[in-house]
Design a protein that fits this description.
Elements (H helix, E strand, L loop, with lengths): L3 H29 L8 E2 L1 H8 L3 H13 L3 E4 L3 E4 L4 H25 L2 H20 L2 H18 L3 H21 L11 H10 L3 H17 L9 H8 L5 H7 L1
Antiparallel strand pairs: 1-3, 2-3
């Protein structure tokens, strides 16, 4: 028999794990909704006060997010929401193109009418946000669409992967886009759902690849212009790197 003290310890651990998961979920949801921007500070003390828990539990939640790259620990600056580089964003889309076409292909083969109805209702909500100019709401909804697809596969590991990739995508859109509408060009989600509804697995996969490539192309992911080198060119001088090598 399991002793009462052992049961209490198990219950305490389970409660702590549930709280830790809730903290992670709230932080992720805030990123999806553009309420936490790249570089935003996350202090253990403030989070512990907000959730009414110990700093140990908060520290564990932040450690898990750090493992996934969602937050980073910086010396003398504490924990911050990640600030993806342009290369990070490009790699995120590369991985998404490996994974998400397979997701929609699988769903198209299942012919799940109930799923199609849920997706269509979600698309109606997306379109209303687009029509009213609710950019941050639209960004959250378009990301939610992709997570709904992953969750519908029934593979929790896959759903977690897409959730992490979507968080990086939201942060990248905030950094390198002029409009949240760049997160989902109009009508592309509708075409994907139509292919799933029609059982067209190959077409659904191709539409998803095109969609992700289109979203990436609408972001400014080219290397930033080096202001010093631009000035050197205007003044008829060699680039800064060439000057440094001469010294």
């Amino acid at each position: 028999m399991v002793s009462s003290s052992a049961k209490q310890r198990e219950a305490r651990v389970a409660s702590q794990q549930a709280t830790e998961a809730r903290i992670r979920e709230r932080i992720m949801d805030a990123i999806y909704g553009c309420r936490l921007e790249p570089g935003a500070r996350l202090t253990e003390e403030a989070l512990a006060d907000l959730f009414g828990v110990s700093r140990t539990i908060v520290r564990q939640a932040l450690a898990r997010l750090a493992q996934d790259g969602i937050v980073v620990h910086r010396p003398n600056r504490g924990t911050q929401v990640a600030t993806p580089t342009r290369k990070d964003a490009q790699q995120t889309f590369a991985v998404r193109r490996m994974v998400e076409p397979e997701i929609v292909s699988l769903l198209a083969q299942r012919s799940d009418a109930a799923l199609v109805r849920r997706l269509e209702r979600h698309l109606d909500t997306e379109n209303k946000a687009r029509e009213t100019g609710a950019d941050t709401r639209l960004l959250r909804l378009t990301g939610r669409f992709h997570m709904m697809l992953a969750e519908a596969t029934g593979f929790p590991v896959l759903a977690r992967l897409v959730a992490e990739l979507q968080a990086f995508t939201c942060l990248s859109v905030m950094l390198y886009s002029r409009s949240a509408d760049d997160a989902s060009p109009p009508c592309e989600h509708e075409a994907i759902v139509a292919a799933i509804a029609g059982g067209e697995a190959e077409r659904a996969a191709e539409l998803m690849r095109h969609h992700l490539t289109h979203v990436e192309a609408r972001l400014n992911l080219s290397a930033p212009v080096d202001e010093v080198d631009t000035l050197a060119k205007a003044l008829g001088m060699p680039p800064a790197g060439a000057l440094a090598m001469r010294r």
